[in-house]
Amino acid sequence: MTDTATGTAATGAELVVGGMTCGACAARIERRLNRLDGVAATVNYATGRAYFASTGGRGPAELIGVIESAGYIAEPPAPPSPDGPPPDPQTGMLARRLVVCVPLAVAVVVLSMVPAAQFPGWQWVSLLLTIPVATWGAWPLYRAAWYGLGHGAATMDTLVSVGVGASFCWSVYALLFGGAGMTGMKMSFAFTFGQASTNTLYLEAAAGVTAAVLAGRYLEQAQAGKAGIQRLADRICAVFVPAVLACSALTLAGWLLAGSPAGHAFSAALAVLIIACPCALGLATPAALVVASGRGAQLGIFIKAYQALESSRAIDTVVLDKTGTVTTGQMAVTGVLAVPGVSRRDLLRFAGSVEQASEHAVAAAVTALATAEAAPLTAADGFRALPGLGARGTVGGHKVTVGRATLFADVPSAVAAWCQEQERAGCTTVLVSWDTEIRGAVAVRDTVKPSAPAAVARLSDLGLRPVLLTGDNAATARAVAAAAGIGEVLAEALPADKARMITDLQAAGRPAAMVGDGVNDAPALAAAQLGLALGSGTDVAIVAADMILLRDDLEAVPDAIALARATFRTIRRNLAWAFCYNMLAIPLAALGFLNPLLAAATMTLSSVFVVWNSLRLRHFATRGSTPISRRLRRRRRGRHGSALRIETVVSDACGVSSRNP
Predict the structure, then answer these.
(1) DSSP result, 429-493
(2) pLDDT of residue 458
(3) Which positions are catalytic?
(4) Would residue 273 count as lying in a domain?
(5) Per-residue pLDDT, 232
(6) Do 284 and 405 fall into the same domain?
(7) By residue range, what is the domain housing residue 50?
(8) Which end of the chain is more exposed for a tag (fewer CB within 10 A), N or C?
(9) CB-count exposure of residue 597 (10 Å: 0-12, 13-18, 19+)
(10) How far apart are CA 112 and CA 184, in angstroms?
(11) Rg for the chain, CA atoms, rounded
(12) Are residue 289 and residue 421 in the same domain, yes or no?
């Protein structure tokens, strides 16, 4: 956590936090930690971790003590296991409860709300079906609520526990001591309070609320990260819960003071608790994110972190690497110039002997032609790659340099003129020298991907400004940009300059996304607000990016951004519905216009609406999208290594084992 040698505060530290059951818990721990001088912490309920940008010089023990004083547990993260992290016990526990509780809750809701299904003795069957849901199923909620109350905190679990417990206990009372247990009893569906409250059961509220909250928790727990918009909802919930509890208490007191029967007062207070249960609020964000991730996978878009979806909202510029991204990356030599006294074969032999040790696309093209025309090539001694510039080595005792014109102090006019002509035609040129004299030049050309013009046009339609970023010369860059329809060019950028250019764009008020595939693109991918790497790219680029595009065509870029924007439009609609629903329904329930039965029904329908609205993302369609599942199956059958490499790299980067259990 701290550097013992320097005494400075550590950055990037984290702790594993246990005992959290909702976003309000995370918000409480976060507030407690950030009260410490010099501490900048973010607590993520979904991952169960506290992340520290700065620890203020404090050690793990002190920070753990602060978390434990808030009523939770914490420990340093365990070292990574070669077999990947163990399954999350919290997720497994929720999954087991969901499997049991959801079918039981559905049956209770149908029996309670469909009069035709109410056979003689149905109410006792509903009680038997509700008992495991309201006890074993809701036990984690009760335990968390009690734990929070022990530390003076009211959480979503408090609200849910009170609502579920009150609904269940009232129903048991009505069955045993009221008229609800009589054979032949039917439940009438009324909007307002009936005259005989002890004849009314609220078992569907107890079972339905429990199942809905467990589903929301499971989806939240299954996420690998949390979007900022969900953190906003968590902060609001921290205020919302005590406000609802206070409103329910005031409703009970108000009806009693007004002379209303105790049953009516209890029903009004219970209706407030039930209708305010945060099922829709808890499902609003995770449901949309999970559906979006599934749809993205179908479109060949792998979302490594949910924060990437949110980042897409702010970007206004998309920076595209040239070689391998806008172009195919498969270069071919289009021209060779040898100065007088030097043969074409010698020029290619010296150039190819050096370039064969390089991994660059230009080097591969030169090596291929040299192998065909000047074999055998000699292995260069003392090979040295010059990132973004070229390469050097010694061939047969001659010091050879192959690379851009900036490596050479004096370029013969005839060679310079030939290079300029080739560059205006869209070619990339490299000069070849040995023994400090330029001996000639080689021109190579790449082809623009067929999907590039359409992808660039769609980015413009989305209100984004495409920019071509390349280490190539300005003339070649402009020619490629013109072919792809890109109007802005950043040329002659060395690998170290690419990240700086991205940072400069963002500092100038142009939040940028970066699309690349090479080792040299990795720093820029990490520096961009949104990094997108091609699945065919290098491992370093895949690890640095936020999204991985598995499709071969460049239209996956606008597809990814459009999907991300559609996802957040869906989340905003979900949250707006959830908040507006509560703001409108709570006063109606408090004033007696909604009984608890209707409150439970509307609460359930609100959650259903949120899930339905999120599932609409399954039908998200784009002009450039094609089903990828068949292509991936063909790739596994034909070229298994590439797909397996991407899976392994992504799994390692995300800390997940790619091996089957």
Answers:
(1) EEEEEETTEEEEEEEEE--B-TTHHHHHHHHHHTT-EEEEE-SS-HHHHHHHHHHHT--EEE-S-
(2) 93
(3) 321
(4) yes
(5) 60
(6) no
(7) 13-75
(8) C
(9) buried
(10) 14
(11) 32
(12) no
Q: What is the DSSP letter of 405?
A: G
Residue 637 lies in a domain: no
C-alpha torsion sign, points 580, 581, 582, 587: positive
pLDDT of residue 134: 94
Decide if 493 contacts 322 (C-beta within 8 A): no
Q: Which CATH number is 33's domain given? A: 3.30.70.100
How high is the mean pLDDT in each 10-residue block of the chain (661 residues)? 38 75 74 86 75 78 87 81 63 88 92 88 94 94 79 74 88 87 76 55 85 75 55 66 88 91 81 76 78 89 77 86 86 89 91 88 89 87 86 90 87 91 87 90 89 93 92 84 91 83 89 87 87 84 86 88 90 84 84 73 77 89 54 44 47 40 32
Q: Is residue 520 part of a domain?
A: yes
Q: Are residues 288 and 310 in the same domain?
A: no
Token pair 């660039």 is found at 456
The residue count for the chain:
661
DSSP 187: -
Residue 631 has a pLDDT of 46
Same domain, 223 and 164: yes
pTM of the model: 0.68
On whether residue 493 sits in a domain, the answer given is yes
Tokens of 104: 């039981």
Whether the Cβ atoms of residue 479 and residue 468 lie closer than 8 Å to each other: no
Domain identity same for 314 and 287:
no
Nearest to 285 by CA among 219, 239, 241, 235: 219
DSSP-derived secondary structure letter, 547: E
Type of residue found at 300: G
Within 8 A by CB and 6+ apart from 8, the residues are: 2, 57
**pLDDT for res 190:** 55
Quote the number of domains for the chain: 4
How do strand 398-403 and strand 13-18 relate by DSSP bridges? unpaired
